[in-house]
Every structure is written in structure tokens, then in C-alpha cells.
Amino acid sequence: QVQLVESGGGLVQAGGSLNLSCAASRNIFSIKIMGWFRQAPGKQRELVATISFGPGGSTSYADSVKGRFTISRDNARNTVYLQMNSLNPGDTAVYYCNLKAGSGYTNYWGQGTQVTVSS
Fold it and tell me: What distance in Å separates the CA atoms of residue 19 and residue 42, rounded to the nearest whole number?
């Protein structure tokens, strides 16, 4: 059973920073992409950032977080990080780790970690 263990969420004041991490269990092979999504109350889940686990590690970001958030990876540890700077109340949401693996890009999800930004 694939498990994604997230950590790093919490409460922070506007303008502050948080660093989320997500570690995939060791029995997962052929990771293609890892990333972060978020869901605020009453809203749909939205993409925040993704990173390829292939050579080069190409990244993509939602327009709302470009320049403030940075996604990175540690292939050896099957881990992805999300450094979040200049946080604002609009970033308040449950953040979910996502992993796609195998030739079929099977989706796996973490349990979610709460990020709350106070004004």
C-alpha cells in the first residue's frame, strides 16, 4: 500500500513562511510526478505546484503562487517539498500531496495538512 506522509502545515501570520514536505513510502516505484494541491472551504481542489521526477525536474506553478512558492524534490528519499513564502490569508487551505506513478500515471493522495494564514 502506497502511503504519502505530509508534514509542515500550521498557523502563520501574513507575510510569513512555511515549508511542507511529503514522503512517499519506499514500496512505490517509477514515480513520474509529485505535487501539491489545495482546497479551501467551499472551493474546489486546485493545483498549486508540480515537479517531474525525471531528468531536469521540470516544475509548474499556479499563477497565484508564482514567485512565492518553490517546489523541490529528493529523488533518493521519494520526497517533495513546498517552500511557501509571503503567505497571505488567501493561501489558507488544506494542502494535499499528490503522486503519479507507473506507466499509467496512477494517482495517489496524502491525507492533507492544514495551512492557516492569519491577517
Answer: 25
The SS3 call for residue 77 is: helix
User: Of 10-14, 24-28, 69-73, 95-99, where does mean pLDDT reach its minimum?
Assistant: 24-28
d(CA 70, CA 31) in angstroms, rounded, equals: 20
Distances 106 to 11, 17, 64, 82, 102 between C-alpha atoms, Å: 32, 31, 27, 22, 6
Q: 117 phi and psi, to 5 degrees?
A: -115, 120
pLDDT at position 1: 78
Closest C-alpha to 54, from 71, 70, 33: 33
Residue with cell 506522509: 5
Q: What pLDDT is stored for residue 29 in this prediction?
A: 77
Instruction: Tell which residue, 35, 32, 74, 72, has the closest CA to residue 54.
Output: 32
Q: Quick one: the chain helix, strand, coil %, rounded to 5? A: 5, 55, 40
